[in-house]
Write the structure tokens for this entry.
Amino acid sequence: MTASYLQSLTQLPIGIVSMSPSAVLFDIDGTLVDSNFLHVEAWARAFWARRLTVPSWRIQRAIGADSDELLDLLIGGESDSAKDQAKELHAKFYQEFVPRLQVLNQARELVAAIASRGVRVVLATSAPEEELKESQAVLDIGHHTFAVTSSEDVTKAKPAPDIITVALQKGGVDAGSAFMVGDSTWDIIAAARAGLRAIGLLSGGTGAGDLTTAGAVAVYDDAADLLADLDASPLAELWAAQASAGTS
């Protein structure tokens, strides 16, 4: 296990409120579904098709950001037309990789364990509807999911806090009664901007140092690692608070 509480009381001026409901917001790509490197491959092919040289490691570091921001980070000097064409090619190539989508180790079990503790599970993603449907089909956790967001809900994706704010609204919870679980710095930054504490997972390819610097209060290898430590993790505050409220 690579996790520890990292300045959890000082990173954000938030206390978990002893009342229900509470929620855990999950990113999908790289957190629950092993799709990040398929996106890297799709973007790399898209840039190559446009005769643009972008190293794959730079693409990986941008994965999880709003597509417009990703393109600004990677090919910011190119025309809007070139960026639009790259975006279209990425979508085309990614569709070819959909059969390779896999659920990350024990991601389903993690979601089920959290739901069984009386905490709402909200999928907080700004993925396009088609990509979201494909990921949900692979995940098969609809019976444990309270609410889901998508690109239809916002005009600006992570690291803007908009999708997190919408996820909180759909989940019927406030920021003090929720955590974000994600794999990219963009997840962590967006959560912080919305007032949530966040847990980082290494399963998307981003290092522990980057996730911690972005504001993660704890970092785990993957969903399986977090599940193994679940009742000792920061998330345990949520069901402990509910139990306390129930006996008060």
